[in-house]
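thread: overnight batch results

M.L. [08:02]
morning all. the overnight job finished for the chain we discussed friday. pasting input first so we're all looking at the same thing
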Amino acid sequence: MRRYGVGKFVPVNRYDEWKVAVEEILDKGMPLALDRAVAQEAYDWPHAARRFVGVYRDLYEEYFGHSYA
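M.L. [08:03]
and the structure it wrote out:
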């Protein structure tokens, strides 16, 4: 989301920043939304699962020295 300049990011435990973010949204309106196609590519379950499997395969190969497939 940062890459596309959309949304609002606030660290979980930084309550002072939450207050500022909410006030900014109330004053200026909602931040831009992430493009639907970009969001689907990043967060849709089949796409996320495929990336997760790729990470698992890479880690398996690195730690065990060969492919499991």
